[in-house]
Amino acid sequence: xxxxxxxxxxxxxxxxxxxxxxxxxxxxxxxxxxxxxxxxxxxxxxxxxxxxxxxxxxxxxxxxxxxxxxxxxxxxxxxxxxxxxxxxxxxxxxxxxxxxxxxxxxxxxxxxxxxxxxxxxxxxxxxxxxxxxxxxxxxxxxxxxxxxxxxxxxxxxxxxxxxxxxxxxxxxxxxxxxxxxxxxxxxxxxxxxxxxxxxxxxxxxxxxxxxxxxxxxxxxxxxxxxxxxxxxxxxxxxxxxxxxxxxxxxxxxxxxxxxxxxxxxxxxxxxxxxxxxxxxxxxxxxxxxxxxxx
Length: 294
Description:
Layout lengths: L1 E10 L2 E6 L2 E7 L1 H5 L9 E8 L4 E7 L5 E2 L4 E2 L3 E7 L7 H13 L3 E7 L6 H12 L4 E3 L8 H8 L3 E5 L6 H8 L25 E6 L2 E5 L44 H7 L5 H14 L8
């Protein structure tokens, strides 16, 4: 019997496939190894049932991917929740912007989550407006006080969402509030796939209902921009799109050229200065990277 499902966890050559009939423990057919193709968490696949009573099978086919990452190894992400704290630690706009750029480059919808709103810092007061100008939705929540969680849950419906952000911003605390089966720090352990204490660096998808998953993966906090070409960078800042092609000079880099539509919009307050500064900083980094270094 052939079933379709989603790989929700991969450990030591075993793939745990969630189907409408439950979670099956699978191996991958040798054809994947021969074709140098590795199944990833998040892959939609076909699997053949070998032992129904023990819920064991083989992954026999991977369906087409919409995106995929090598580190962390995960595929088919719909949206990225970029988590930062209002304070303790204080938010660093450049790191937030770097994650929005990586998400945009991989055609993943970013949204922002400002946690620890029970605390405050001067820089955090300006961030909601900054990202609203960029067209991003921002959720102001407090995991400690359980505030704003229901609105965040609505954002997750019928999507595969990964949460990213620096250490200490409260990602695990937020994830623990999103579903009864999520216990990253303490709690019960699932008999089937050993969910429980967050002691590994493997990617795992947690189901929150029909077609709704959240990904637990520390690796997303370390995503870099080096696979982005400098000519692609402007497309990763949605607030620049309106002005691209309107500069005086064709191929304007929006850094120092005269009569630049982007910099004119900046001076008019239509683009947040911190976002523009992040663009320039990333531009300077990417223009130094040679093709052979990618």
